[in-house]
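Q: I'm writing a short explainer about Galactocerebrosidase for a general audience and would like to include a description of its predicted shape. Could you first generate the structure from this sequence?
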Amino acid sequence: MGHRVFWVFVSAACLLSLPVYPLAGQTYPLTDEGGLGRVFDGIGGLSGGGATSRLLVNYAEPYRSQILDYLFKPNFGASLHILKVEIGGDAQTTDGTEPSHMHYENDENYFRGYEWWLMKEAKKRNPNITLIALPWAFPGWVGRGKNWPYDFPDVTAAYVVNWILGAKKYHDLDIQYIG
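A: Of course. Here's the predicted structure. Afterward I'll give you a sentence or two in plain language.
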């Protein structure tokens, strides 16, 4: 089985590298009969960059629920399949700042910010929605005072893993992908 997967990978790479110049008037059929094509995962939305959806939580009812329904209910409105959120890092990341779940190394609070609320509202409307998260920034302690947290991959990874574990433990949210 492993050999076949390797062969398909090599074949796909070879096929993709060959230039195709269809002659005028001819058709070039696109097919996935060999199973080499990508899988359509769905249509997604993003809440990140600091404050892009911050005001939604404060909308008056019934408008807030109507907007959330239009975004996340299956077969209704946008009916998003994927929601990607920012893991807050206490830093200006585009339009504002999202609070971190760990302002300091020994400080953990999984109720800061509004992304938890948004993910739970999305799950209420679509239990099958795919949740994705990634940090736009990190608190300074993650980089040990440097402006680059990736010099300490164990600390950076623990910071992100703690967020994933907190999502499950405190909000019953399963994060399918992390960036």
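A: For your explainer, you could say: Helices lie at 2-17, 63-72, 115-125, 153-171.
Q: Perfect, that's easy to follow.
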